Amino acid sequence: MSRRILAVTVAAAVMLSAGMLARAEDLEQQRASAVAQLDLLTLQYREAGQRTDYLEGSVERAEADVADRASVLALRPAFVAEITALAAALERAEGMVDTAAHRAAALSAQQTVLAEKADPDTVKAATATVHALTDKVGSEVASVQAAQSSGPGGPAWSSSGPGGYARVRAALDLVGGGGVGLYESASCAGGNAPACANSNGYIKYRADIVNWSSGRLNWAMAHELAHIYQFRVWGALTSSAAYGSLFGADPEFLANCMAVVRGFPGSVGCNGDQQAWASGIWVGAVR
């Protein structure tokens, strides 16, 4: 009986040990699974942290970009206002001053502003450039207007307008009269002459010559400029025997020959001797 009890006890102990071993193995598997899960969670946490850092950095960069763009957009109305002011100044300057360089500079500034997305300082600089261009154009126009108002009888033109005046002025400058005063007038020979030179050193023109061809207009200005140079040596000129023999003491004929020498022939030709003598008047020499 005792042996049976012992055998049962031993058997029970063995079964209990086997159960404990099985339980231990199960717990080890659970622990290993928990560790693996923890490792996975840790990895996911770290990856999430990295994504969070990246997203935070991206958000910060985007916010800065938005702020820069907002600053640029806020400055654009001021630039547009300056461009508008310059356009008005250029329109007023038409026919009085050469605005090609100003227009090119304004176009460059405008393209810069249109291309700029993030730097407000670039827009500020372009705005200042256009403002300076407007001031410069205004100053140049004021200088021309002051010169026009200082001529005999007031303004330099009346019916020919600024565009017509500019065309005649350009012709006179082309033939060498850049420093000679020019004014519109209907008083040349009572209005019968298209242009005339004054002994005080300026030239007047009739309004209709602004529609002449370039060749004819250039010749007319060269002819009148020749008279200005004749007036400078008038005493010696009228006393010259050669002037009488070569030109019949006719200042109009001499002026035609002087224009030929400058490369602007009219309808009256001059021979070689006449041209050679006429060329001296341009440099103040009377032979």
Task: Give a structural overview.
- The longest helix is centred in the N-terminal third of the chain and has 92 residues, at 2-93.
- α1 (2-93) runs antiparallel to α2, α5 crosses α8 and α8 crosses α9.
- The chain has a 3-stranded mixed β-sheet with strand order 1-3-2, with helices on one face.
- The chain has 2 domains: 2-147, no CATH class; 161-282, Zincin-like.
- Helices cover 71% and strands 4% of the residues.
- The protein is mainly alpha-helical and 287 residues long.
- The radius of gyration is 48 Å and the shape is rod-shaped.
- The chain contains 9 helices and 3 strands, in the order ααααβββααααα.
- The termini are far apart.
Summarize the structure.
The chain is mostly helical.
Number of helices: 9
Overall helicity? over 70%
Measured on Cα atoms, how large is the radius of gyration?
48 Å
Number of domains: 2
Order of helices and strands: HHHHEEEHHHHH
Low-confidence segments: none
Rounded mean pLDDT is 83
Strands side by side in the biggest sheet: 1-3-2
- Profile the largest sheet: 3 strands, mixed
Protein topology:
Layout: H1 2-93, H2 100-115, H3 120-149, H4 161-174, E1 181-184, E2 195-197, E3 202-205, H5 214-232, H6 234-238, H7 241-247, H8 251-261, H9 272-282
Parallel strand pairs: 1-3
Antiparallel strand pairs: 2-3
